[in-house]
Write a structure and sequence with these properties.
The chain has 405 residues and is of the alpha+beta class. The protein is built from 11 helices and 21 strands. It has 3 domains: 6-110, Aminopeptidase (3-Layer(aba) Sandwich), CATH 3.40.630.30; 135-296, Aminopeptidase; 298-393, Nonspecific Lipid-transfer Protein, Chain A, CATH 3.30.1050. Coenzyme A binds next to strand 4 and helix 3.
Length: 405
């Protein structure tokens, strides 16, 4: 109990009240059916409800994820459904929920927590840092010409739900295994969240379209999109909205986008969660026409700095001592020595000082210590400390999370 706020973990039958505050902001009330569906993803005890005077006024939940980080996959809390009712804002409900949730994540031995933030001002104070970027594309169809081979490689097909269900998870898994920021999906996640297509999820668009690309007879890429059709003056002003598209190789990625960019009868192709190093920059004749808007992607918190730093891989050849500040989870604070072979506590002079939220920003390779220092968010304490830290933490590809959870 803090400031009159009481936070408790919910049992399997208590999920509904914990979800009510966040549903308020979607303009709805959870039903027993909807909460039963969500209960398949939120394990007992992973939802927290905040009460004041006996009434539920806030809630926060977490999925149990396996998240790809450079060189490894780690258990992570996928934080979601966080809210306080509008009648009880700024009375410490979020703070109490974050306290209970991060303590719980720590006790479960999950070294990381990740989330999508509805507002960038909320989570830094709890040790989360923006860890990946996401690109939003709005490409006029007539400007969507591809470079590269004129003839398709392999075969693209529109497939049934059953065929998508059989082929897509393996493709996703192969991409996820080597892309920091992607988490493993369960069978239920595929069925109920990714491939389910109830009318209320169409947001004014048509049915979910499933595209499979096979190369050499093997499934190598897929896309999910919807057509939002509309006509004016006799021609389409509609768009094809790409919900998810990926390939296991350069060929597969290009062939998936060849289909998406070639959908006739639409004015634009839109997508909102593209990786920031997407091949489209070099595949399109006119990448400028994407009018790409870049925003924050996932936010990451190192809940157990030692375990998290110790599990990821590093480039050889450098070592660094980081002086980490962590006011909200003080068990992480102090000096950590990192090199490609070892990570551990250290008494040596530190090279770089930063807050744990900044460590969250560099952990997946999405940002550098030098970038943070340029904004006054990391401090170099010894010569070439930033350069050595960046030499260790650098990765080959930008982290990417293709889905808001
Ligand atoms: C965002 C939200 C959860 C905050 O809950 P709350 O109970 O009012 O937050 P608290 O009273 O615990 O405030 C904690 C701190 O965060 C700050 N804060 C919270 N939300 C903020 C916001 N949107 N902008 C700026 N600061 C914010 C508070 O000022 C306070 O700062 P302090 O610790 O320095 O005093 C609540 O406003 C809400 O439910 N919003 C709509 C749903 C939503 O955005 N959920 C997050 C989904 S990712």
């Amino acid at each position: 109990m803090r400031g009159g706020v009481e936070v408790k973990a919910c049992g399997p039958d208590e999920l509904l009240p914990a979800l009510t505050p966040v549903w308020h902001y979607f303009g709805a009330t959870p039903t027993p059916e909807s909460s039963e569906r969500i209960a398949r993803f939120i394990a007992p005890g992973r939802a927290h409800a905040a009460r004041m005077d006996g009434e539920v006024v806030g809630g926060a939940s977490a999925f149990s994820f396996e998240l790809t980080v450079p060189g490894a996959r780690l258990p992570a809390a996928g934080v979601a459904a966080v809210a306080a009712l509008p009648t009880h804002r700024r009375r410490g409900i979020l703070r109490s929920l974050m306290r209970a949730q991060l303590d719980d994540v720590h006790e479960r031995g999950e070294p990381l927590a990740v989330l999508w933030a509805s507002d960038e001002r909320i989570y830094g104070r709890y040790g989360y840092g923006v860890a990946s970027l996401a690109g939003e594309m709005n490409l006029p169809r007539v400007r969507a010409s591809l470079r590269g081979p004129a003839e398709p490689v392999g075969q693209a097909r529109l497939v049934s739900l059953e065929e998508a269900r059989a082929a897509f998870p393996d493709i996703y898994e192969r991409v996820a295994a080597e892309t920091p920021g992607i988490y493993a999906r369960s069978e239920d996640w595929w069925d109920l969240r990714v491939l389910a297509d109830p009318p209320e999820r169409r947001a004014g668009g048509g049915e979910l379209v499933r595209v499979l690309v096979e190369i050499g007879g093997r499934p190598e890429g897929y896309a999910l999109y919807r057509i939002h059709q509309s006509f004016e003056h006799g021609f389409s002003i509609g768009h094809a909205r790409v919900l998810e598209a990926m390939g296991t190789s350069a060929d597969a990625t290009r062939e998936v986008w060849r289909v998406l960019l070639g959908v006739d009868w639409v004015d634009r192709i839109t997508a909102s969660l593209l990786p920031i190093d997407h091949a489209l920059f070099f595949l399109l004749e006119e990448p400028r026409r994407m009018t790409l808007r870049v925003g924050d992607g996932i936010w990451l918190r190192l809940v157990d700095v030692g375990a998290a730093l110790g599990a990821r891989s590093y480039r050889d050849g450098a070592q660094v001592v980081l002086d980490v500040q962590d006011d909200f989870c003080p068990w992480n604070a102090g000096r950590w020595k990192v090199d490609a072979a070892n990570v551990g506590r250290s008494d040596e002079e530190p090279d770089v000082h930063c807050d744990v939220s900044e460590l969250g920003s560099v952990f997946l390779g999405g940002f550098t210590f030098a970038q943070l220092a340029a904004a006054g968010r990391a401090r170099e304490l010894r010569a070439r400390g930033l350069a050595r830290a960046d030499a260790l933490f650098r990765t080959d590809r930008a982290p990417w999370c293709p889905e808001i959870f």
